[in-house]
Specification:
Length: about 450
């Protein structure tokens, strides 16, 4: 067995932190067997900018992917993803499922024509699956599968008149298809080199339809935070929980396949989501916000070389502030590689953090979307938007973890706001403005960018 571990990144879409629990026994068991990072954040609470940030280790303000339907990043960053560095080190790399590095919404094409372009992000093999709804006007690996089963036209018709009930049995459900292809990859892998597999589910992204009867009772769903109780929201939450439960089972199948093939012991599993989902909290049914439910993400890792605590001592929880941008450095470190020196990246090795390396932590994390920017420190969260007049949200995260009391503009908190805005501005300038080496002699005290 190769000493370098295999790495499996399981990525979901719209999966909230608090969705890990009663409905996700396999995921919860994996989290308990490794390290669960309970204060993890995406770099942007929206699909394309979040996903591009994760694989390039750069913020939207650095890479230019500031929203969905953005043009792809240029070759400089596309050829510098952590997947590229893994390949250069001898890893075999595969993508199964959603990527959203390239946006084809509303184009009306077979996105498999993009396989070569997607592979240029650092993959040896690619199987693309789009969100349900996006494959109502495009085709992908999943719709090709449905055509083979004689179900394509029925699927397209159901998309136009969908409720919560999926039209097919579970074996023909998109996330089940993704899981089956991931299991197939593991079962057929016979190379000597270690592998990196990005298994990327489209759920629990809306539509909230799924096969089978509703298993979660809407009456037992938590009422929305910061908004009136609503039966319709509770029903949505029940179907959302069912979709999360299905993904939990699919992850279990992949783990079982790894174990059966004798690869589990030498594999690191990382689980996260591109962002969360408000699900009616504060009256919002979307992402795109900097509340914990949207900008916060689940993140855990387990397996070869990842610290863990014995069962009788309870699970290992890391409450330090961490970012999706840390996965760039972490995945490379797992493969025995260092993050290349680059002014654009300050990712931290999360395994080193979990082991107690004091220098691996962050004093603050940041997230961006459009004209908005968030800074989160251990005690505070501030959201700044010049289009809305400056500081729009300020929360004391110790006293008000549910973010019910917005202190922006409240007398007595001017000092806190000013300090956080200054830190936000300093961070933005540091990572987006620089000089070249020959200018150091002319610009006193300015640090060169390279």
């Amino acid at each position: 067995m190769n000493a370098r571990p295999n790495v499996v990144l399981i990525l979901t879409d719209h999966f909230r932190r608090d969705a890990l629990g009663r409905n996700t026994p396999r995921l919860s068991a994996l989290a308990r067997s490794g390290v669960n990072f309970t204060n993890a954040y995406c770099a942007a609470p929206l699909c394309q900018p979040a996903r591009v940030a994760l694989v390039t280790g750069t913020y939207p303000s650095q890479n230019g992917i500031c929203g969905n339907q953005s043009d792809p990043v240029g070759p400089e960053l596309r050829d510098d993803t952590f997947m590229h560095h893994l390949r250069a080190a001898g890893y075999r790399t595969a993508l199964v499922g959603k990527h959203h590095y390239i946006d084809r919404y509303g184009i009306g094409m077979d996105v498999r024509e993009d396989d070569e372009e997607v592979a240029r992000y650092g993959f040896d093999s690619v199987l693309q699956v789009l969100d349900d709804g996006e494959n109502g006007h495009n085709e992908d690996g999943y719709t090709a599968f449905l055509r083979e089963q004689g179900l394509f036209e029925e699927f397209r018709a159901a998309l136009g008149n969908r409720g919560y009930r999926h039209p097919f049995e579970e074996q023909f459900y998109a996330d089940c298809f993704i899981a089956a292809r991931g299991v197939e990859f593991v079962e057929k892998y016979a190379e000597e080199e270690p592998f990196y597999l990005n298994l990327s589910f489209i759920g629990p992204h809306p539509p909230l339809w799924h096969p089978g009867e509703l298993r979660n009772d809407p009456e037992k769903m938590a009422a929305p935070v910061g908004a009136p109780d609503d039966e319709r929201i509770r029903e949505r939450r029940a179907h959302y929980a069912d979709k999360c439960a299905l993904i939990d089972g699919y992850v279990g199948r992949l783990v079982d396949a790894l174990e059966k093939r004798g690869r589990l012991e030498n594999t690191v599993i990382i689980f996260t989501s591109d962002h969360g989902d408000m699900l009616g909290d504060f009256g919002i049914e979307d992402k795109r916000h900097f509340y914990e439910q949207s900008a916060g993400v689940p993140l855990f890792m387990c397996g070869a070389g990842v610290p863990h605590t014995e069962r009788n001592n309870g699970p290992r929880l890391c409450r330090s502030l961490v970012s999706h941008l840390d996965l760039y450095a972490t995945v490379l470190a797992l493969a025995g590689l260092e993050q290349p020196p680059d002014r654009r990246r300050d990712g931290r090795d999360l395994v080193a953090l979990a082991r107690g390396d004091a220098g691996a932590g962050r004093a603050a994390v940041f997230s961006e979307l459009g004209t908005c920017a968030m800074i989160r420190t251990p005690g505070w969260k501030l959201v700044f938007d010049p289009e809305q007049g400056g500081v729009v949200k300020l929360f004391n995260m110790h006293a008000d973890p549910q973010e019910l009391q917005n202190l922006a503009g409240v007398a007595g908190y001017e000092g806190v706001s000013g300090e956080l805005v200054a830190r936000l501005l300093a961070e933005r300038i540091r990572r987006t403005q620089f000089t070249h080496i020959k200018e150091q002699q002319r610009l006193q005290g300015v640090r060169a960018g390279y």
